Amino acid sequence: MILENQPLFERLLARSPFSVRELTVLIATASERYKDHYIEKRHGRGLRLISQPTAELKFLQRQLIQHELSNLPLHEAAVAYRKGFSIKDHAAPHASGRYLLKLDFSDFFPSLKESTIRYRLQRDASFSDVELWMMCQLLCRRDRDADILRLSIGAPSSPFVSNYLLWEFDSRIQMFCSEMDTRYTRYADDLAFSTSRPHVLDVVAEKVKALLVELDYLGVTLNASKTVNVSTKNRRTLVGLTLSNDGAASIGRDEKRNLRATMHALSQGKLRPEEIGRFRGKLAFVHAVDAEFVSKLCAKYGFSKVSEIQGPQRKT
After folding, report:
1. Can you spell out the DSSP letters for 135-177?
2. At a CB cut-off of 8 Å and minimum separation 6, what does 21 contact?
3. Do strands 99-104 and 228-231 pair parallel, antiparallel, or not at all (unpaired)?
4. Which of 228, 181, 235, 179 is closest to 205 using CA atoms?
5. Pairing state of beta strands 141-143 and 148-150?
6. What pTM did the predictor assign?
7. Which of 1, 8, 249, 262 has CB 3.0 to 4.6 Å from 91, enough for a Cys bridge?
8. DSSP run (H or E) holding 207
9. What's the rounded mean pLDDT across residues 174-189?
10. What's the helix, strand, coil split of the chain in %, to 5?
11. What pLDDT digit, counting tens, does each position of 91-115 carry?
12. pLDDT for 119-152, tens place per residue?
């Protein structure tokens, strides 16, 4: 396959440090250039495959997102992986609703395959057949067992691409929800719906199932075991945040108490290095939701920001 006369190849070549031969080989072997490892899923639900592209492939993936795909449509309901958005933008719109429905996609990134990318790009962009092949080679990891190209958890391009591929789904669900007086947001594979009208969310759930069947090019399915349908009579949580009956979304009083206790233990030198790392990560997560709480907690113990937290520190 001759790549040199393809405009996409020429643009990638101009923006990269690679020679013609090096870039040709990189593209041809891109789907194999991953290092796999597994991490524990939350709550002991098994192992999750993480596939990290090589540095050269990450470079090219970022080039594609920044220069080739940045004008593709993303729906406003998709709030994950987007600059200026946080988990609070996913949770807060649902705090005032009496009823909350949570749905979850199964194996989200790996469910989005080469065929899905081709289907959408053929409608939204003007790449040649060879360029579409190049795109899929660079954006996907080859699943050797199924001999198929899929998005991987670990590639810097997968978050943007997944939001783009779900644009039609998000648009049509948002339109339906507006007619049903229901709010909708999606944070990666977590879908949230809320309303103050009884029984409406049952209709919404059936609409989601039907639309996924209709948009079969997506290849995405729901994880039925993670479906939650609750009201204000129950404790409502969303992506780790607590939705209170007064219409607020926060980490909750119990979590704040735990964070204060952990910070105190840190100040006494009672945390192991790995515990300090996890604590720092949790504070960074909470900062996106309640920056004032995190800033005050850090300042009380002599840290000006979360990244400074390494171990015990006395205030001067």
Report:
1. HHHHH-EEETTTTEEE--TT-TTHHHHHHHHTHHHHHHHHHHH
2. none
3. antiparallel
4. 228
5. antiparallel
6. 0.85
7. 249
8. helix 200-214
9. 97
10. 50, 15, 35
11. 989 988 999 999 999 999 999 999 9
12. 999 999 999 999 999 999 999 999 988 899 999 9
